[in-house]
Amino acid sequence: MRPANIVTSVADILAGIAISGVLSSGVSIPWLSIAFLAASTACLYGGGIVFNDVFDADLDKIERPERAIPSGLISLKNATILGSLLLFAGIALAALNSLTSGFLALLVAVFALLYNKFGKHHPFFGPLNMGLCRGFNLLLGLSIVPEMLQSHYYLAVIPVIYIFSITMTSRGEVHGGHTKNLYLAAFLYAIVICAIAYFAFVNDRLLWSLLFLLPFTFMIFRPLLKAIKEPIGKNIGGAVKAGVISLILMDAAWAVTFDALILAFIIAALLPLSMWLSKLFAVT
Predict the structure, then answer these.
(1) Where residue 25 falls among pLDDT bands split at 50, 70, 90?
(2) All structural domains of the chain
(3) What sign for the dihedral angle of Cα 158, 122, 244, 144?
(4) Which of 111, 138, 100 is nearest to 47 (CA)?
(5) pLDDT, tens digit (0-9, with 9 covering 90-100), for 86-120
């Protein structure tokens, strides 16, 4: 279920909540809705990852025999049941907030299954498919105030671009990759950083945003440059792992950009937890 990754999906939700402005609206904080949406994304991500292993069970027997299904730790049937329960729970929990949230959760689940079954095998639509999952996840957090989706939906393009680049890079983590993909990833990373910095500048929050954007930039580019220099599986895997975990800092930058400074620090505090979990469980 990749616990370290699940933490990053919760960070996406908190970033969406920050963008919605609900925390600075002057009304009481909707703690129950926040809990529903955070639990929803945890279930959706966990379920999606379980189905990733379900659909890859035969391939993992060859490439990654240490994984849960090929190693015999869990049967294919029980893994399928677990993944299904998690996805259904994710949709139901989101629907408790609103029908709009439930629909967005459904989209996340559908696109996760599409990626696991078909998308991952396509060099362009696969990364785009995975990016859409994260984009919808940010919108799931934003849906805590459904009306805000109409004016801020376009912000989901940023995580789509970012996850597109990570997913494209990850294709070389087993057998090694091509430097052209890594250079493209570096270019897309730069677009993401500049886009967030632009919104922070427009909202007069650039200096606060840099508090998270600078370490974010360092965390993603250091292993990526190493992979560009030597594009072997180990280095590419390290770049992918750093890219996934660094999402937390990107989400913190989103939060402070929309004047939710305290929430930004709360999101950033999830980084040590995710890094600790990444040492115990696989990230990629």
Answers:
(1) confident
(2) 3-272 (1.10.357.140)
(3) positive
(4) 111
(5) 999 999 999 999 999 999 999 999 999 999 999 98
